[in-house]
Write a structure and sequence with these properties.
The strands form 3 sheets. A 9-stranded mixed sheet has the order 4-1-5-6-13-12-11-8-9, sandwiched between helices. Strands 2-3 form a two-stranded antiparallel sheet. The two termini are 17 Å apart. The chain is globular. It has one domain: Class I glutamine amidotransferase (GATase) domain (Rossmann fold, 3-Layer(aba) Sandwich). By secondary structure, the protein is an alpha/beta fold. It is 28% helix and 24% strand. The structure holds manganese (II) ion. The site of manganese (II) ion has 7 residues, from loops.
Length: 238
């Protein structure tokens, strides 16, 4: 039997009972596992950096998801800590190394939220440190009181993978972010925009599969048939 495809997922790190722990949302592991793919969790630790070349020796794609902010130093924005959420320089280093490697080797890359921001940074783009601060009239992109139920519309451009999956010019998406794409990375094509103009999805036409979404299809799985197709297309591209 051929061995299973392997997808890297860099974990997230936080303090629990005075100890640093590494974790990842189970739903990604679940979706990949059900799709016949082996998720390979890459832990955030100094020791991982020394072993990164081993992780990068044998894998088929990378999935990047939630997490704190990406350090502005990686996209040459002036440092402004008051506008930043939690951030983790070791996670940044591990994830950007893995993402760059995947892009250089034309392996499928799927990013949600912070993961889309990472794709944009890898292609030389930049981020707004805080979208609500730079645009007071912006759509509400995070609502802690209605965390999982808040939605805003996005307009989907035709001739994009997103339109191919959802077959609609407008859908309602969840939204959990205070940052967003400022300058678009080289070669990336916007696939969707919120009513305030913020980019909510990108892809790169020159690669086998490079897709970033600002929203989380897996957290609204039952709402559109297209949600499952995002993952299916990624898995098919591995
Ligand atoms: Mn949003």
């Amino acid at each position: 039997m051929p061995s299973k495809k392997k997808v890297l997922i860099v974990t997230r790190r936080e303090l629990r009972k005075n100890k640093l722990i590494n974790w990842v949302s189970e739903i990604y592991v679940q979706i990949l596992g059900q799709g016949g793919v082996l998720p390979v969790l890459v832990p955030i630790a100094q020791g991982t950096i020394a072993n990164l070349s081993d992780y990068l020796e044998d894998y088929d794609g990378i999935l990047m998801s939630e997490g704190g902010d990406i350090s502005p130093a990686l996209y040459n924005e002036p440092y402004s800590v008051s506008k930043l959420d939690e951030y983790d320089p070791i996670k940044d280093e591990i994830e950007i190394t893995c993402c760059r490697h995947a892009v250089e080797h034309n392996k499928p890359v799927l990013g949600f939220c912070r993961g889309m921001h990472m794709i944009n940074v890898v292609f030389g783009g930049s981020l707004h440190l805080d979208i609500h601060e730079i645009n007071k009239k912006s759509v509400l992109h995070i609502d802690y009181d209605n965390y999982d139920t808040v939605r805003h519309p996005i307009a989907i451009a035709e001739d994009t993978p997103l339109f191919h999956w959802y077959k609609e010019k407008e859908i309602q998406v969840n939204t959990y972010h205070h940052q967003g794409i400022k300058n678009l990375g080289e070669g990336l094509i916007p696939m969707a925009k919120a009513p305030d103009g913020l980019i909510e999805g990108v892809f790169h036409p020159d690669y086998k599969f490079v897709v970033g979404l600002q929203f989380h299809p897996e957290r609204m799985y039952q709402e559109y048939a297209g949600n499952k197709l995002v993952f299916k297309s990624f898995i098919d591209a591995l």
